[in-house]
Amino acid sequence: MPADWEMPLISAMNQISSNNWPVEMLRSLAAYVVSTRCWVAVDHGIPSLLTDTPGEPFHASTKLANMILLAPVDEAEGFETVNVNGNTVNFYVVVPLTPAEAQWKREVGAAKSIHYIVGNKREYPENVLVDYVIDASRPCCVEDLQCREYFDNIEDEESEEDGDDDGDEDDDDDVDAVAEDVEDGNRGAELEMES
Question: How far apart are CA 85 and CA 87, in angstroms?
Fold first, then answer.
């Protein structure tokens, strides 16, 4: 979150507001994992769990309504895991997405969508559209900036150059099992990863 983000008092934390929805987003993700005993991993997409209808905006003040888990690539080497009493705990960067961005990711995979637009804007201000630091009022990269068409065209050109015409839109192993699980109303189902 930005350094100047106004955090509410602890006593107001259970009420979703324009100031605390990012914290509640993280708490809901942790509660989902604990209550369902399902695991999550890099590139998993998860709809908002803050409302009765998964995938609704985190708060009325933003159109962000989904999240993706990314590797903490900007952190020091070794930051991504820690051993606690013999159990491995993984750390992820949680990036909120709009519904259109989440749909793009589901259709073509994270490597051919979200990985193009998310990054460290302080390090690469001209090349990063979605910063790791939350901007609740940022434009949607699909609907407002038409990034999907741009990156789809790049993928098509690269495929033609490489001779890749197998028609498989999702060559990476990206699986949105968590999002599908939640969207189907099947919050307690075990995740099945495709190979």
Answer: 6
